[in-house]
Specification:
90 residues; mainly alpha; 2 helices; 47% helix; 7% strand
Length: 90
């Protein structure tokens, strides 16, 4: 079970304690998180992995289509010589 320290005598007490068993003073209860933050972290990691997997899968399939000839590789419309001549004109 989780422990916490009494704010008055600094002894270890139960997390849910309302009164310190050592000094007898009343203690304010700790705010409870309800146990849901870990679920949101889990959903975030799962979503990130699924998104990354989908992007990687899309790129792999795209590369396979290019290599198999089903999809044409987009090349620049001008050749390198034409681009060099155009730069030399400036």
């Amino acid at each position: 079970m989780f422990k916490r320290r009494c704010p008055y005598c600094h002894e270890k007490i139960q997390r849910e304690a309302k009164v310190c068993r050592f000094c007898g003073r009343e203690i304010e209860p700790l705010p409870s998180f309800g146990g849901t933050p870990w679920i949101w972290l889990l959903f975030g990691f799962v979503g990130a992995f699924l998104g990354a997997g989908a992007m990687i899968g899309y790129q792999v399939l795209k590369e396979r289509r290019i290599w198999s000839g089903q999809e044409k590789l987009s090349l620049p419309s001008k050749t390198s010589r034409e681009l060099e001549e155009q730069l030399m004109d400036f």
